[in-house]
Design goal:
globular, binds ribulose-5-phosphate, four-stranded antiparallel sheet, alpha/beta, seven-stranded mixed sheet, 6 helices, Alpha-Beta Plaits, Rossmann fold, 234 residues
Length: 234
């Protein structure tokens, strides 16, 4: 089996082909898209690529600054041309689970403001039905135990607050992450997304429905770009 880190790098770099001079680019979060960010930085310094970026997390903001990408606030521009981001799972309809890196809220805001979304992934992320990867849900710290109970009842599965050491993971937005262990049963992600968002303590859910236009997928046979036939890159 090919080295996973090498696959992530291949996918991350290949996705840069979607980025052209003058573009406003959303910069995702994670160990795959980090290679995209680094490559874009190299192209800026070596080829004079002229882009501006909007990061989806403090970690990506730090990396983007280090590699020399000019960053702006989403509030200061009128939308983005493209966002490139990782995913934890994608299904045959290009619906995604994201949030493994706890950045789902900013990632979803940035994706929503983008004219196109390209996902970078290795072939472990491809699934028939979403949910083997525990579904990340950003929740308010206030009464989070009650929110977790409501989620558990709704989804009929174990839901736990994500921990780091002795304390909960705190997102860049000061919230917590609840992970829902439904198993690969999320066959109607649009309904699941709306039902989860009805719970008051939920800030956002890591189901990214009808957002992904292409997946740049690296596997042992190389990298392929799979275009969503119902997407915006057709
Ligand atoms: C962060 C995310 C990541 O994009 C997702 O977890 C994939 O990360 P990686 O490329 O490290 O596997 O959603 O919130």
């Amino acid at each position: 089996m090919a080295d996973v880190e090498a696959l992530k790098r291949e996918a991350g770099i290949e996705a840069c082909k979607f980025v052209k001079n003058g573009m406003k680019v959303g910069l995702g979060t994670g160990s795959t898209v980090k290679h995209t960010v680094i490559e874009l930085g190299s192209r800026i310094s070596e080829e004079g690529l002229d882009i501006i970026g909007v990061p989806t997390s403090l970690a990506t903001e730090k990396l983007a600054k280090e590699v020399g990408i000019t960053l702006v606030e989403l509030s200061d521009i009128d939308g983005l041309d493209i966002v490139i981001d990782g995913a934890d799972e994608y299904d045959p309809h290009f619906q995604l689970i994201k949030g493994g890196g706890a950045a789902l809220l900013r990632e979803k805001i940035v994706a929503q403001e983008s004219s196109a979304m390209v996902v970078v992934a290795d072939d472990r992320k491809k699934v028939e039905t979403l949910g083997a990867f525990p579904l990340p849900i950003e929740v308010t710290p206030f009464s989070h135990e009650a929110t977790v109970r409501s989620l558990s009842r709704l989804l009929d599965c174990r839901v736990n607050i994500r921990m780091s050491g002795n304390g909960p993971v705190i997102t860049d937005n000061g919230n917590m992450i609840a992970d829902a262990h439904s198993g690969p049963k999320i066959s109607d992600p649009l309904t699941s997304e709306s039902e989860i968002l009805m719970i008051a303590g939920v800030v956002q859910v890591g189901l990214f429905n009808n957002m992904c236009d292409a997946v740049v997928l690296a596997g042992s046979n190389g990298v392929e770009t799979i275009i969503n036939p119902n997407g915006r890159l057709i």
